[in-house]
Amino acid sequence: MRLMINGETIERPEPCSLAKLLQELNVKAERVTTVVNETIVPAAQRAAYQVQEGDRLEILTFAGGG
Questions:
Q1: Which of 14, 26, 34, 41 is spaced 20 to 30 A from 60 at the CA atom?
Q2: CATH number at residue 48
Q3: Residue-wise pLDDT tens digits, 35-48
């Protein structure tokens, strides 16, 4: 299964939940916003959301400043 994450193509052996994918990528899920195919997927929905072949994901982190 091919996915695009932050502009880079990755291969996965099978579909999985967005939450599992973040865990496999060692992403601190509580610190990011996830966008799949230009739609925000709220943190509460990541465990149920299944990533599919060809999905385009953006994993966004925000930094505060002053």
A1: 14
A2: 3.10.20.30
A3: 999 999 999 999 99
Report residue 22 as tokens.
């973040």
- 60 beta partners: 33
Task: Give the other-Cβ count within 10 Å of 21's Cβ.
Answer: 24
Phi/psi region, residue 7 (left: phi>0; alpha: psi -120 to 50; beta: rest), is left
- Count of structural domains, the chain: 1
Cβ–Cβ under 8 Å, residues 60 and 66? no
12 in a structural domain: yes
Range of the domain at 56: 2-61
| Higher per-residue confidence, 65 vs 54 | 54
